[in-house]
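Hey,

Quick one before I head out. I ran the complex with nicotinamide-adenine-dinucleotide overnight. Inputs first:
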Amino acid sequence: MMSRRRVGIVGFGNLGQSIFNAILNEPSLEVVFVWNRTKDVLRGIGGLALDNLEQFAEREPDLVVEVAHPSITARYGALFLSVCDYLIGSPTALADGLLEKGLRDVASTSGHAIYISAGALWGGEDIKKMADLDTLKGLRVTMRKHPESYRLTGQLAELAAEAADSDQEVTLYEGPVRELCPLAPHNVNTMAAAALAAHNLGFDGVIGRLVADPSIPDMHIVEVEVTGPGEPGAEFTVRTVRNNPAALGAVTGAATFSAFISSVRRAHGRGAGGIHLC
Ligand SMILES: NC(=O)c1ccc[n+]([C@@H]2O[C@H](COP(=O)([O-])OP(=O)(O)OC[C@H]3O[C@@H](n4cnc5c(N)ncnc54)[C@H](O)[C@@H]3O)[C@@H](O)[C@H]2O)c1
């Protein structure tokens, strides 16, 4: 009988709990630990709860899944990759170029793989193929949500509040994804995944646009605009629009939970050293 892939879950909030429950019904996977910063939520899962994340290797995981916060990757990413594969659920962490390079180096030395959930990104594999051939010339990802569905701080939060008080849409940010990630780390994982797929443009070349739109209380919209080779005005272009139903105020839309669980299933068997969308 094929052995089950041993999965450790870091973060036991909305995503962590939905992954945990999905794995209970998954014959090819088993949970070997769950860690969370606060321990009260771990009551009820018995011996699967892990107290000290530094000791995760004792549970002999094949895959660690991060669904907590980008800071986990900065602090523990290299340690995880020295032991097993690592699925990064908060890839905005990789807007730190030194961290990205460091993790790629550890992965290629240890022979383990870095996986990124494609999340709400549509067409990630196609974007990556164009990046591999260097035919990808431009990529803009627009996220459009109700102002209350953003979890923002600082200047972007003030702009979102302005949008909430009016009936007009407000563009909160338009520019390189690298600068946007630290400003809105919980909202732009899809854009970070796009920047990793579009590796010839990267976090500096991929453009992110964040729009607060009071007219869509129950929908998260992600638009991906790809530009390829050709004369100006007659270039290769692709535009996709993903409409994802979401409860008012929810940061994560309903379809993203099932997309994430399918990423956990697909996070295996790829080459070591690289970053793989799944
Ligand atoms: N890739 C994607 O498509 C995608 C989609 C949704 C959410 N996410 C990301 O996944 C992560 C989890 O999302 P969620 O909806 O489950 O969030 P959540 O708030 O429901 O759960 C987060 C959990 O992590 C813990 N946590 C919070 N801050 C922490 C920190 N600084 N250090 C350690 N633990 C911390 C909390 O205790 C909580 O249990 C977030 O970073 C979010 O941005 C990614």
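The radius of gyration is 19 Å.

Talk tomorrow,
K.
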